[in-house]
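User: Could you check the structure of this?
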Amino acid sequence: MPLYLDVHHKIDGLKAEALGHAHQKDLEVQHKYGVNYLRYWFDEGTGKVFCLVQAPSKEAAAAVHREAHGLVADEIIEVKEGS
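Assistant: Sure, the predicted structure tokens are below.
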């Protein structure tokens, strides 16, 4: 299954706890779209968030965020894993 990195350039007022809750909501919804959100990274200072996700398409990955909490990524980039 393709692997994507989704990028949220600026989430105003980003806090670790709230982001953890949003990620949990993704996990609760992802099965509906055949998606698997794996990890996320963030910087509270800039409001940037990066999510690593296995998904059948960019659209499926976006649909999970849209349904779970409405924080849709600004970019979704297909990536390949390296060592």
